Each structure stands twice: as C-alpha cells, then as structure tokens.
Description:
Blueprint: H1 190-201, H2 208-215, H3 220-223, H4 225-234, H5 238-245, H6 248-257, H7 261-273, H8 280-289, H9 292-306, H10 310-317, H11 320-329, H12 342-355, H13 364-373, H14 376-390, H15 394-401, H16 404-418, H17 420-432, H18 439-449, H19 454-465, H20 469-476, H21 479-489
Helix pairs in contact: 1-2, 1-4, 2-21, 6-18, 6-21, 7-8, 7-9, 8-16, 11-13, 11-16, 12-13, 12-14, 15-16, 16-17, 17-18, 17-19, 17-20, 20-21
Amino acid sequence: MSYPGYPPQSSGYPSQAGGYQSQGGGYPPQGGGYPPQAGGYLPQGGGYPPQGGGYPPQAGGGYSPQAGGYPPMGGGYPPAAGGYPPQGGVYPAPAGGFPSQAGGYQQPQPGGGFPSMPPGGGGWGAAPQGYGAPGGAPQGYPGGAAPGQQPAPNYPSGGGYGSGVPTNPQAPAIPTGYRGSIKDFPGADPLRDVEVLRKAMKGFGTDENAIIELLGSRSNKQRVPMVAAYKTTYGKDLLHDLKSELTGNFEHLVLSMMKSPAHFDASELREAIKGAGTDEACLIEILSSRSNAEIREIVKIYKAEYGKTLEDAINSDTSGHFRRLLVSLCQGNRDERENVDISLAKQDAQKLYAAGENKVGTDESQFNAILCARSKPHLRAVFQEYQQMCGRDIEKSICREMSGNVESGMVAVVKCIKNTPAYFAERLHKAMQGAGTKDRTLVRIMVSRSEIDMMDIRQVYVKTYGKSLYTHISGDTSGDYKKLLLKLCGGND
C-alpha cells in the first residue's frame, strides 16, 4: 500500500454516489478580508455591441445576415449601456443612476469609480491627489469639536486632504485564486481512508508515517467523514482509537484536524475559558477573525456541546470593557457590506479621536461600538482617515489610552482587520519565539488557516521575520508533530 494515493485494485471499492458532501460549519470564503479594488468595477471588454435591429456579421466565419430576414422590430428595447449581456457580472447602470445613500451605493463618477471608493493607484491614500469629493471639492469634517474639547487637528498641508502617503500600508492587493496550503485530494474515499488508518493502528506499534501522509493530504471536508466511515466499517470510535495510539502534541494536532472548523473553534474557546486562567488572546483571535456565519455556527455548537451559551461563559470569566468587547464580537452581527462611504469613515475617525486622544480619559464604549459593528473594508478606511487626521496610527492611540486586556484586545481586533495574514504571522512568530513553544496556539492557527490564507501568511512571515515559517517550525518542533505541521504549512519559501 502506498500513501496517500491508492494502488489500482481489480476488485476495488465501487465509486461513491454523490461524492463528498460539504460539511456544515465549514468556513465560507472570508468576507471583507481585503479592501475593495480601487476604481470600482469597469465594464469588461468583449461585450456584444448595441443591437441595431439585426445581428452584425460575426468575426471568424459566424452567420452572415440572411437574405429576406426579419426586419427590425419597431418599438423594441434600446441597446443596453455597456453592451448586452454585461460581462463578468457587471450590470449596466439604470437610467438616472443609482440613488445616493449614506453607506449605500452612490452615483458612478466619470472614469468608472464611485465617490465611496478611493482613486486608482494601489490602495488607500496612494493617489497624490487624495480622495477628493466629486468635482474636486475638498471634504471637511462635519461639525466641530464638542464643548470643552480641542478642535480636531488639520490635515497636513501640501496638496490638500489625503495627500500624505501612509507609512503603514493597510492590506495587500487581493491575491487571486485559492490561498490555502491543503487542497482536496482527487478521488479520496473515506472507506478506503479508514482502512489505511485501521492498518496503521492495529497490531503492535503504530505506523505514524501512514497517518501523517494520509491526513496531511486530505482537506477538512475529506477528513471529517472518516469518523462516521470508521464506525460504520469497524464499529469503533476513530477518535478514541487515535487517542489510545498517539501521544502529546502529535495527538492533539491529529484530533484537531478531525473536527469541523466550527467544532474545533468551539472546543478551543471552551479550553480558553475553563479552568483557573483565561486565554484572552485565544478568545480575541477566534472572535475577531471569523465571519458572522462562522461565529453563529460556533455559538450554536458551543451551546449544544457544553450546555451553556458562549456569551454566558464569557460573562462569567471576564470583566469590564474587555468583557463587553468579547460579548459584542460573539453576536456575529458585524456589517459585511463591501462598499465604503468615505464621509462616514471620516465621521467615525473623528469619533474615535474625540473618544481617546482628544479627551481626558477614554470612552472605550465608542471604540467598542465602531470596531465591533462596522464592516472590515469600512474600518480599514477609518484607520487610514484617523492617521491622516491626527498623524498617529490607531494602534498607538489605543496603547496610549488603554491598558490591560482591553488594550491588547482592541489592538488585536485592529491588526486582524487591517491585515489578517500579518496578524496570524505575528501570532505564529510569538508562539515559537523565545524559550518554550505555545503549542496550542501553533496547532490552532496551522489547522484553522491551512485552507484559508496559509500561503499569504507564509509570504508575510518570511518578509517580516527574515526566515520562512517552514524553517521556524522545523527548528522549533520535532518528530511526527513537526512532520504533520510541515504538511499543513505546505512548503518552504
């Protein structure tokens, strides 16, 4: 038997009808991970030209107009703007344009952009002329400072609002294609897979390499059905057998890989809360990086598995503004719209300035309201506006104004929203840096991000820390544990 593929067999298993079913609780693609592309959507080339009553001759030997064909119909529909049908999912603008709404769609501008989108040129603040209002009119902050407060500082001179290029880039350009390191294995069959696992575990000793090769080459939706297939075939519990055969970090990693993403997150949250201490960083990591749908699935599973709501568990184990932050995040009600209203982003930036740097004390509730409710693309715009306005990064302001768990929690939320792969690269580096390894953090991130953005995390890691994630894992772990982690990493950089 070879791993992880299967040798051809004359009397192999019959093909399974229907193939794999998508497991409930799997992570959908992340919404709002990266800022919208500058310039708005443009109509794609290649659309059909407006019809003029009859079809024009097609290039490349298409049909020519037939003699005696039907005459043009009177009173027909006018040609659609941009050609019919719209290519690439871009619909022609309706007559009269889109109504302008706060936070909603706005009238397209000449050149294809929207006033809610930054100008072309590579992201927020990259264009020398700045954002600018339609027609070039500068946009000022609405209203003034509250009574007894200092007015908000002016924008830097020299080119008007938005002319300064930020020193901290926000999120990188949206990568194309699948960014995970683990992919579906073609033709994988859970009945054959569990036969491999059974042979690896029965008898004297355990064939760990067979387990590593198999699990390290199957996606989560291919691993999870093995639990039911094992019980169907052998009448035994696969997780129980794995526990009895494996030990230590390798055992924890293998068992983590056998759970659906939502079940795994729920178990990690439970582990972070129960017992004497609380792993606050784990709570923030999971709740700040998951989508609304993922959080709601986690909450449902947590209640079913542990007989207590996640919110009650958080309330009983945390306190103060940090508790409020976690409770807000676990509602799974963040705005997930992609469009950005720059005027609203400016207002939010001013509110954050007034709640922190521009008052005695800090209004943590205002930070909580904006960071937990606004969409991620909107918040990236807010952070950019904030830096342009007061010349200080939002993270530094939080560190100056807050302390303890609420400070670290707010900073983590900001980092995750700004650049999710960079946030996880930093978490991985801290888990392996110095004496000892935070293995639970290492396992959680490697398992949970292996099918989402591991390729992006690897790129950020080697650029930020000067050596690849693969190399750091190799030097910081050992044995079968290291081999399976490196499978999840997916390669060296």
